[in-house]
Write a structure and sequence with these properties.
It is flat and about 70 Å long. By secondary structure, the chain is mainly alpha-helical. It is built from nine helices and no strands.
Length: 212
């Protein structure tokens, strides 16, 4: 293992790492904006058609590989006249994927709340909207944090697949170095260290927020 070579190649790897972080955070944020409200809706009684649409969306996300979803975004968006860069196609694909899982995370967190809290709020004459936003949701958010951290970790790793549509993230940057130097083992090790460091940082942040 040539550790000196790994250190020398860090200036080429770090831009890829920064792009991976940007892709993951943006994808996760957009997915949260979409997924959490839909998950909350799904936890309550809603029209059958809307419930079916949400369930079908979750089924598609969980039933197809992320690679298929990336290719679908890459080839289908231009057909509908949406011409954006591979970077933004990657954001669309990651957001689409993560939102499907976040729907289930939010739904499970809401459904895990004790029915007694709803009954107590009703007895006090509190409105359903007030009960949801000021009593149920703050507690549900705490319960969402561990699975959300796990979903963020999954998204970080999934971002490596975006190399297939020429997004120059960490995995793509490492592959370029391998093509130039044939230092396969060193680049695998470097990628593993950087991915693990990012995942550990996100996990520790989640633990900190949960304690707060």
């Amino acid at each position: 293992m040539d550790f000196i070579f790994i250190i020398d190649q860090m200036p080429r790897l770090l831009p890829g790492l920064m792009l991976t972080i940007e892709l993951s955070l943006l994808g996760f944020l957009i997915a949260t904006i979409i997924g959490v409200p839909l998950g909350i809706l799904r936890a309550y009684k809603i029209p059958f058609f809307l419930s079916w649409v949400i369930d079908f969306y979750v089924f598609v996300v969980r039933g197809t590989p992320i690679l298929v979803q990336i290719y679908a975004a890459y080839f289908l968006l231009p057909i509908f006249g949406i011409k954006i860069s591979p970077f933004w196609i990657g954001i669309v694909a990651l957001s689409f994927n993560s939102a499907g899982y976040q729907i289930e995370i939010a739904r499970a967190a809401i459904l895990s709340m004790d029915d007694g809290q709803y009954e107590g709020a009703f007895a006090l004459g509190l409105a359903k909207s007030y009960t949801l936003f000021f009593i149920i949701l703050p507690q549900a958010v705490i319960r969402m944090l561990p699975p959300m951290a796990n979903e963020m970790s999954n998204l970080i790793k999934a971002s490596s697949v975006l190399s297939v549509i020429t997004v120059f993230e960490l995995h793509k940057a490492a592959n370029a170095i391998i093509s130039d130097s044939f230092k396969f083992l060193e680049m695998l090790f470097a990628q593993a260290v950087l991915y693990v460091a990012f995942v550990v940082a996100m996990t520790q942040l989640s633990i900190y927020l949960e304690k707060k």
